[in-house]
Give the backbone structure.
Amino acid sequence: MTNDYRFEFRPYQRRFLRSLTTNHGKWDIREGIILRLTDESGKVGWGEIAPISWFGSETLEQALDFCRQLPEEITDETIFSIPDELPACQFGFESAWEWGSGKWGNEFFSMPNAQSFSALLPSGEAALNQWETLWQQAYRTFKWKIGVNVIADELEIFESLTRILPASTKLRLDANGGLSYEEANLWLSTCDNLKANGELPLEIEFIEQPLPVEQFQQMLELSTSYETAIALDESVATLGQLAACHQQGWRGIFVIKPGIVGSPSRLRKFCHQHQIDTVFSSVFETAIARLAALQLAAELSQNNRAVGFGIDHFFEQEETWLQSLWNDL
């Protein structure tokens, strides 16, 4: 039996408190689309489309075009036949459908505490001051962007960071594909040496996406050459890429960004089938997509790794923004 839903959507913009700097450049405003599906009995499901086109999803314009061409009444079939070129749309519509259909129901998980979240530190020297505030908020896993500044400077800051972070900390280094092969070797050997010295109280959990997506074979080779683990991120942005990397032999860590990976139901199927080592991570979405993403993380995380959703400190907290978004238009 096919269900009918009344479909509404609203674009939104949220400004970062300070620019987010990665190897892909500066990012000032997070833009996305909030969806609302209402079924015949009046049950409402919320969803969010939060694309990051430079990461491998569709653009915001493509997502808006897709929403604009849909009729006001849509069916289950509409939701489950969104093409793979629109992964953020697949996630937004399917999670709105799950929300409304009560799929999460009473077994809805409790929100994880800060200790099971990884907090993103600012790039460069600012990290040396910012970690303490986040530590006081109970974060114990931190992620720091590398490949942003000159490598000699970053290695120096990294060394300072390893000296000042408390013993029980886990640190993730995220290159966003921005290192050369030589630099990746240098970072991995630096981490291995720190580990071998036994002087390092904290744990370097992994280096994330050291090389560009097209250098998959080199990353595969590096993953067997060093003790320090490598996690793929940009290389596995969508379900298709995830399956391709697994097929080509990747058995390391997969960073999954639910907001842009594609269909939640197909992601579940893939993770159950292959039992992959996952880290679930944010795309700087609002609480709506975060709820759906954390639901997936709670179901599919194998190795109890902290989820990369410690990003609240990048936005102003505005409790009523959703109501005002919906009512103001």
Notes: The mean pLDDT is 91. The two ends are 34 Å apart (CA to CA).
